[in-house]
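Hi V.,

You were right to ask for the full record rather than a summary. Here it is.
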Amino acid sequence: MTNYQSESLMAVQANVKFRERLNKGFAIAGLGIIVVSVLILLLLVLGMFFQGIGRLTPQFFLNFPSRNPEEAGILSAWVGTILVMSVTAIISVPVGIASGIYLEEYARKNWLADVIEINVTNLAGVPSIVYGLLALGLFVYQFKLGQSILAAGLTLALLILPIVIVTTRESLRAIPSSLREAAYALGASKWQMIWDHILPYSLGSIMTGIIIGLSRAIGETAPVITIGALTFIAFLPDSPFQDFPKNVFAWLFAPFTVMPIQMFNWVSRPEPEFEVNAAAAGTVLTVMTLSMNGLAIYLRYHFRKGIKW
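Predicted structure:
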């Protein structure tokens, strides 16, 4: 080996060692940032939990908001949250899955499909206040739905619809083409191939995306404030069984409030006792969100168990 070749080899080895040290440095820095971020988040959550744990009594869940902080509760807030999220799920899930299936399996691959894909992907990153302004003009004023549970559900459905569509497309795209070809070889139609073979294997990922989307929607404040969510409600919507079947959908047009709005109302009050109520409500909302994310993780594990491509 000549001197020139030896120097070149040493330069290459030095370059490789430098890159390895650089990679280790990035890995250590990334791990440190993640650990610090998680610790800060954990400290904030624990601080909120210990501040509000004294108010987490049965009366807190069964009382309406009150001017007296010791008597105030979140009954109208958590009931409103469940109703709004029910409307959101009923609208966004079938529309989002159907749109994802159409765009991935049926739509022709041309410039129009590319434009739709780019717009759907970009819509997932649009600030939520923009959806609130859109819903205010479209649902509240144009369709005259008013400041109702239906308007709020439609607004949040619009908010998470791009997430559901993108998740569905990615889940379908992850299924190997050999599975589709095997279904066609057995004489299945396109819909039979999708319904009997593709959807069952991609259901875990689709449901994970749906639950994560709903977890985002349950904590959104800006869009529901924009369309006129009330901050003080001392009543519940009419039961659908109260005058069945005449007023079965009357609850959809009732005024509403949700957990983030209730917390915002309490935090904005000057009395420090209401901050304890806000911490207790925040703890309940955090538990609800973590439960939904835990369910998503379980579903992903359950549906992917035993699948080997």
